[in-house]
């Protein structure tokens, strides 16, 4: 270190405090990066790597970006999950003795974005702090710095915590520095987040404003971690942080990440984009604030009936009030993102344009308030009261800030005339000076007789008088002083001109300084309105989401759902909202769904492509839409209020994360079975298809029986195992329905209608034909099917998913025998299935309660050990890869 130059020493000293960030070191008009930072940044940003002499033995690697275009580069690094420490010169270089003093003024991190491309209008950007406690609970606190929102909850398990982290999609997670490495790695990979460290530290009094009401120590310490991190990185007061909202996850309908994905609530499975999701369909919001709130509501459907009805009342009123709704929409169009503007004002980086946007937004509020207040609904009256127009603030901004100020706050042209006398005086001086100069041209032309004489200005020489070469003899001796020679003209100054120029420049410089001073003072004054602006922003966001629901409901003919306390689900003419929108209302075939206490499970059969998954999804989406307070796509809908929704639909397998299709299916089934209650909704699509027929069928049946007998959740279960349809005989609350298809001229026609009873045929080969498989292949499949159908007993296993009516008839005696003895398929198969039993055991151990009678007696010590190890695995706490590795290890033991 001693041989480095003082500046490099200063750099190294500061860099040592920010080892995990790129240090942007201000040198004149550039931010420079040195050493490893420079090498890495040059690669990431594709900029030139150079070097400089730093006093040491070797040259110091270096790269840099201009100060004025640094924002784009910083955003690129943040986007990639890095952090950037901004190190500024904090004293005037002219006044500095030795090296200019420098300090890091802000640490920009992925979870603390305040502006830029990384911040999308309709999405929150969360930073979350997480504390695991010894009793297995987790404290979670998160904040969106750009909006000031802070939320806080205590979660009872890692599984619950992981669900919450997935839902909020935090970009950065703050944990204690002694966290377990494996856990940190999991956090990084599983949630694609940057992990940062902050250790527990004392509570500061100033935080009482944010969380004075939070008494529980676990929550306070987690919140303290979050706030300490914010203070350490942002290095300023964060007055816009709102009082922390304390919540519990069971205030909302619970849905795990997979269920949300399968139902495509906020993004589609295939394209991972918004388009095609329920959010895309419902988003008729006009403001960014409304857009963000809609996503939050969709992530957290309500379970409190009163709250749901309150939203529905509002939507119903707005739906009926077409003209008022149009008025509201057009008013909302002129409202900017007040929530983020408030954040920027408090943060101290709002410019004059931001204040003009704020004023314009506030000017819309009285009209919005009038329209909402006039709606025939008491709830609307309450919302209108929260639409605070902040008149004094509007008056201040109206009086002070020009209508079209520049982006920069240091170049003047911000403050209106008449706002401040000192400024007016400066401006007068400058204007008078300029007027004098404007008159000078005419005066001098007359005095000299030079018609082409001009008065001009440039940055280097200031004001001058220009005379073309042919006229030079007419220039008055002594009065004009030569300043510059051009190709065909000479430029002169006079003492009076210079005097006026000095006056003008001085006045301008002074007014620019004054304007900045005044602007900062106005911004400070605006700060006092932040709590009011935040309340207003919330009310606007709510109004926007409710009008969006009303607009969609009106346009798409949705109806108000009713809620049943008797656990009845009765949907008449129900539609899948997104498929209906994509296919068109004319093409979409509506379907009914009826379930109650005596009819808790629907076993859905029918050919591929017949509409089974769509039907199941439409039931779940209808329930979710109802519980966020929106109307639903049906002619009539009576619904229970569901506490949780579980889905396993389609093949959204996490193969990249090391999970096999079957494993994912089993894990999700386990999750549902472990948590569902009689107030839950379960959708299982072809569970068990990913393994050999008997395994799959056995599992499917065992799962159905378990849910039926022990949980009683409303369940829709689709399957290609036709044998399972016989369960209707033995499970009193299970009913068969099927998706209809008919054959016309040898071609299959899907009717997309759900009808009572079981399907009689599979049409798998027809679907393959539709998919364009070669005709010779299709013919061969037909021959094989016919052959197998002839020799049913031998080939039962293989044909089960492509069974014809004749085959069903041939199987009838076995079914009858089975039915007589209780559970048809497994018992009917009798001894044959007993042979299969051992292979099923391993999979059933995932559902301990479903496992058949103890078979341990016949197992070897080694096998018992493996079984015990399997039983003790906490699968949901392992990464997919760890689970697979463990399985591999156990399997190896057996071999
Ligand atoms: N009610 C409906 N009205 C019109 N079209 C529908 C309807 N339901 C489904 N469809 C269309 O049929 C296609 C197949 O539906 P879906 O995926 O639900 O079939 P499936 O029976 O679950 O098939 P598989 O068994 O192969 O998974 C959908 O993509 C949709 O375009």
TrEMBL record:
Pfam families: MutS_I, MutS_II, MutS_III, MutS_IV, MutS_V. Transmembrane segments: none annotated. This is DNA mismatch repair protein MutS. GO terms for molecular function: ATP binding; ATP-dependent DNA damage sensor activity; damaged DNA binding; mismatched DNA binding. Residues 680-696 form the DNA mismatch repair proteins mutS family domain. InterPro entries: DNA_mismatch_repair_MutS, DNA_mismatch_repair_MutS-lik_N, DNA_mismatch_repair_MutS/MSH, DNA_mismatch_repair_MutS_C, DNA_mismatch_repair_MutS_clamp, DNA_mismatch_repair_MutS_core, DNA_mismatch_repair_MutS_N, DNA_mismatch_repair_MutS_sf. Belongs to the DNA mismatch repair MutS family. This protein is involved in the repair of mismatches in DNA. It is possible that it carries out the mismatch recognition step. This protein has a weak ATPase activity. ATP binds at residues 606-613. It comes from the Bacteria. It comes from Geobacillus subterraneus. Keywords: ATP-binding, DNA damage, DNA repair, DNA-binding, Nucleotide-binding. HAMAP family: MutS. The gene is mutS. Residues 792-837 are annotated as: Disordered. GO terms for cellular component: cytosol. SMART domains: MUTSac, MUTSd. GO terms for biological process: mismatch repair.
């Amino acid at each position: 270190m001693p041989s480095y130059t003082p500046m490099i020493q200063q750099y190294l000293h500061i860099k040592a405090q920010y080892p995990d960030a790129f240090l942007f070191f201000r040198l004149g008009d550039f931010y420079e990066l040195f050493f490893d930072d420079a090498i890495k940044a040059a690669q990431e940003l594709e900029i030139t790597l150079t070097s400089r002499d730093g006093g040491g033995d070797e040259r110091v690697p270096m790269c840099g970006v201009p100060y004025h275009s640094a924002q784009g580069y910083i955003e690129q690094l943040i986007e990639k999950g890095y952090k950037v420490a901004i190190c500024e010169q904090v004293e005037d270089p002219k006044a500095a003795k030795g090296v200019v003093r420098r300090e890091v003024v802000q640490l920009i991190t992925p979870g603390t974005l305040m502006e830029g491309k990384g911040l999308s209008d309709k999405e929150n950007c969360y930073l979350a702090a997480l504390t695991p406690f010894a009793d297995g609970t987790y404290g979670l606190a998160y904040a969106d710095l750009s909006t000031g929102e802070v939320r806080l909850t205590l979660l009872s398990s890692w599984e619950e915590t992981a669900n919450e982290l997935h839902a909020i999609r935090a970009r950065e997670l703050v944990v204690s520095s002694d966290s377990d490495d494996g856990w940190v790695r999991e956090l990084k990979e599983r949630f694609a987040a940057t992990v940062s460290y902050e250790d527990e530290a004392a509570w500061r009094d100033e935080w009482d404003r944010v969380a004075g009401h939070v008494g529980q120590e676990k929550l306070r310490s987690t919140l303290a971690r979050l706030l300490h991190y914010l203070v350490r990185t942002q290095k300023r007061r964060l007055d816009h942080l709102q009082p922390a909202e304390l919540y519990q996850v069971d205030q909302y309908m619970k849905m795990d990440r997979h269920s949300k994905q399968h139902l495509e609530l906020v993004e589609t499975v295939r394209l991972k984009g918004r388009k095609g999701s329920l959010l895309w369909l419902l988003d008729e919001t006009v403001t960014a604030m409304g857009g963000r709130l809609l996503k939050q509501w969709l992530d957290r459907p309500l379970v409190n009936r009163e709250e749901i009805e309150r939203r529905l009342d509002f939507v119903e009123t707005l739906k009926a009030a077409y003209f008022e709704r149009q008025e509201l929409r057009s008013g909302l169009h002129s409202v900017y993102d007040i929530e983020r503007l408030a954040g920027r004002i408090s943060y101290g980086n709002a410019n004059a344009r931001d204040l003009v946007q704020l004023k314009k937004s506030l000017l819309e509020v009285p009209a919005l308030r009038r329209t909402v207040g006039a709606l025939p609904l008491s709830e609307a009256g309450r919302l209108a009261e929260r639409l605070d127009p902040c008149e004094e603030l509007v008056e201040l901004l109206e009086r002070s800030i020009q209508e079209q100020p520049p982006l920069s706050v240091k170049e003047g042209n911000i403050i209106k005339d008449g706002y401040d006398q000192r400024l007016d005086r400066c401006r007068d001086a400058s204007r008078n000076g300029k007027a004098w100069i404007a008159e000078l041209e005419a005066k001098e032309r007359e005095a000299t007789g030079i018609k082409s004489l001009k008065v001009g200005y440039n940055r280097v020489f200031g004001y001058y008088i220009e005379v073309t070469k042919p006229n030079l003899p007419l220039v008055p001796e002594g009065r004009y002083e030569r300043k510059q020679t051009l190709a065909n003209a000479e430029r002169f100054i006079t003492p009076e001109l210079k005097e006026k120029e000095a006056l003008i420049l001085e006045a301008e410089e002074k007014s620019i300084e004054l304007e900045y001073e005044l602007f900062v003072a106005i911004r400070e004054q605006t700060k006092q309105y932040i709590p009011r602006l935040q309340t207003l922003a919330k009310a606007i966001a709510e109004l926007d989401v409710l009008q969006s629901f009303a607009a969609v409901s009106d346009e798409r003919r949705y109806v108000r759902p009713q809620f049943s306390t008797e656990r009845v689900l009765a949907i008449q003419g129900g539609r899948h909202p997104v498929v209906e929108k994509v296919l068109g209302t004319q093409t979409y075939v509506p379907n009914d769904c009826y379930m109650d206490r005596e009819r808790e499970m629907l076993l859905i059969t029918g050919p591929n492509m017949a509409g089974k998954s769509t039907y199941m999804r439409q039931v779940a989406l209808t329930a979710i839409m109802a519980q966020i307070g929106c109307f639903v796509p049906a002619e009539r809908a009576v619904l229970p209020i569901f506490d949780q929704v579980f889905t396993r639909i389609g093949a959204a397998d996490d193969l990249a994360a090391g999970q096999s299709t079957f494993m994912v299916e089993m894990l999700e089934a386990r999750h549902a079975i472990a948590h569902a209650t009689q107030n839950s909704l379960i959708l299982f699509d072809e569970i068990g298809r990913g393994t050999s027929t008997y395994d799959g069928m056995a599992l499917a049946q065992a799962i159905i029986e378990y849910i039926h007998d022990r949980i009683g959740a409303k369940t829709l279960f689709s399957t290609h195992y036709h044998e399972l349809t016989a369960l209707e005989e033995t499970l009193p609350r299970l009913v068969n329905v099927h998706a209809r298809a008919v054959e016309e001229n040898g071609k299959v026609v899907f009717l997309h209608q759900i009808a009572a009873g079981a399907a009689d045929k599979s049409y798998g080969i027809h679907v393959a034909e539709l998919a364009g498989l070669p005709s010779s292949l299709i013919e061969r499949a037909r021959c094989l099917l016919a052959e197998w159908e002839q020799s049913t007993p031998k080939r039962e296993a293989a044909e089960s998913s492509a069974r014809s009516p004749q085959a069903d008839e041939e199987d009838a005696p076995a079914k009858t025998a089975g039915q007589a003895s209780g559970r048809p398929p497994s018992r009917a198969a009798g001894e044959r299935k007993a042979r299969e039993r051992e292979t099923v055991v391993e999979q059933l151990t995932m559902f301990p309660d479903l496992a058949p009678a103890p078979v341990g007696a016949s197992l070897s010590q080694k096998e018992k050990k493996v079984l015990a190890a399997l039983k003790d695995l906490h699968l949901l706490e392992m990464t997919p890869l760890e689970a697979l590795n463990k399985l591999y290890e156990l399997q190896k033991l057996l071999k």
